[in-house]
Write a structure and sequence with these properties.
Elements: E1 2-6, E2 16-22, E3 29-30, E4 35-40, E5 45-49, E6 54-59, E7 66-68, E8 72-77, H1 86-94, E9 113-114, E10 121-122, H2 126-135, H3 153-162, H4 166-174, H5 206-221, E11 224-232, H6 234-251, H7 257-271, E12 278-280, E13 283-285, E14 292-294, E15 296-298, E16 301-303, E17 306-307, H8 315-331, E18 344-348, E19 367-381, E20 384-398, H9 404-419, H10 422-426
Parallel strand pairs: 14-18, 18-19
Antiparallel strand pairs: 1-8, 2-4, 2-7, 3-6, 4-5, 6-8, 9-10, 11-20, 12-13, 14-17, 15-16, 19-20
Helix pairs in contact: 2-3, 7-8, 7-9
Length: 428
């Protein structure tokens, strides 16, 4: 008996997705609730589990196809036994693994890649496949750290840097590569020389298209303005240095900068509630809680999971929540609910080395705080020029809701709380 695998509910207001990757092939055994495919929606990637145990008998759609919620995408034969289909067996006979080209370098950027040394099948994401091509590593020799042991881009880069891959060693012996890796073509064939010019066309993911649309809509709709200030990070750095070991020992998490800024924003929002408000039609909605959207870089684009009720959370709770979200973002396992809502956004471009930026607000929110890198700069203290670890802060806001005076006041409150963290304890 065959059972259809249908696209599950993907979240509120989401009616369709894109089949990003097949995790199982026809003829492979499937356990009940085992993921067989990965779907990409406007917000998250979702794995589709098999409702029954058996053997996948048929894939009804192709990778890259758009599928609606409830639509069948595969069939599972509950009475079948794991065996490769006749066509696959014939292809295996004609082109056995390891013959000719390295399987990891075959042309289709979304097709599964067979390992050269055994019969197991490893599925590589497009990002991982490009990294494999770029760094000339053998994916079958790398231990994956992602979900279910899958390879991540970081695994490939780490293997390349460690020189642990025979494929890399062979590539280096064949030709001396420049310090910046040359982008390789997706089709198999001889590597081009450093003077060759290549182009690669990659279709925008559904998530990237949604990010682009939302950011452009924000620019077209909001009366957006950015105000700046700088903050002396000496007090926060000293506090982290003094208490980081005790904090980690007690709470099992490192004390980071984000906890201080979330608490500082919660304090400032009490004085300037419009920064934590949103515009709905001709009404301004004020929130007596702070749900902070924390911008996190994921392999497929920027995502903003929400730390709910951040104003009532402790430093440890904030840091733990952000750490969990960061891990989920890297693995692509964030849920729609975890990224829905949010009343205010914090984006930390400083982790990538940004000195200054003008962040774009995340509608329907009215403001976003941009953090940047910390660097020692000369400042005047008590009539003396001294070096201090300084950070630029940027607050982009919707001028339809927030006046300039309110924006500046909010940023000054944040600056005061960071430069004197005692204010966070006595609510001043």
């Amino acid at each position: 008996m065959a059972t259809d695998v249908q696209v599950p509910a993907l979240g509120e207001s989401i009616t369709e997705g894109t089949l990003a990757q097949w995790l199982k092939k026809p003829g492979e055994a499937v356990a009940q609730d085992e993921p067989i495919a990965s779907l990409e929606t406007d917000k998250v990637s979702v794995e589709v589990p098999s409702p029954v145990a058996g053997v996948m008998s048929e894939q009804l759609v192709k990778e890259g196809d758009t599928v609606a919620v409830g639509a069948p995408i595969a069939r599972i034969d509950e009475s079948g036994t794991a065996a490769a289909p006749a066509k696959a067996a014939a292809e295996a006979t004609t082109n056995p693994p390891g013959a000719g080209e390295t399987p990891a370098l075959k042309g289709d950027s979304t097709a599964p890649v067979a390992e050269a040394e055994d019969d197991q099948v490893t599925t590589l994401s497009p990002a991982v496949r490009r990294a494999v091509l770029e760094y000339h590593v053998d994916p079958s020799k790398i231990q994956g750290t992602g979900k279910d042991g899958r390879l991540t881009k970081d695994d490939v880069i780490a293997a390349a840097q460690a020189g642990s891959s025979p494929a890399k060693a062979g590539a280096q012996a064949e030709a001396k590569l420049p310090s910046t890796p040359v982008q390789q073509p997706s089709a198999p064939g001889p590597r081009p020389s450093s003077g060759d010019r290549r182009e690669e066309r990659v279709k925008m993911s559904r998530l990237r298209q949604t990010i682009a649309k939302r950011l452009k809509d924000a620019q077209n709709t909001a009366a957006m303005l950015t105000t700046f200030n700088d903050v002396d990070m000496s007090a926060v750095i000293d506090a982290r240095t003094r208490y980081k070991d005790l904090f980690e020992k007690k709470h099992g998490i490192r004390l980071g900068f984000m906890g201080f800024f979330v608490k500082a924003c919660a304090l400032a929002a009490k004085d300037v509630p419009s920064v934590n408000a949103s515009l709905e039609g001709d009404e301004i909605v004020y929130h007596d809680y702070l749900d902070v959207s924390v911008a996190v870089s994921a392999p497929k684009g920027l995502v903003v999971p929400v730390v709910r009720n951040a104003d009532s959370m402790s430093f440890a709770e904030i840091e733990k929540t952000i750490a969990v979200y960061g891990k989920k973002a890297k693995e692509g396992t964030l849920t729609v609910d975890e990224m829905s809502g949010g009343t205010f956004t914090i984006s930390n471009g400083g982790v990538f080395g940004s000195l200054l930026s003008t962040p774009i607000i995340n509608p329907p929110q009215s403001a976003v705080l941009g953090m940047h890198r910390i660097e020692e700069r000369p400042v005047v203290k008590d009539g003396q020029i001294v070096a201090r670890p300084m950070m630029y802060l940027a607050l982009s806001y919707d001028h339809r809701i927030i006046d300039g005076r309110e924006a500046v006041t909010f940023l000054v409150r944040v600056k005061e709380a960071i430069e004197d963290p005692t204010r966070l304890l006595i609510d001043l």
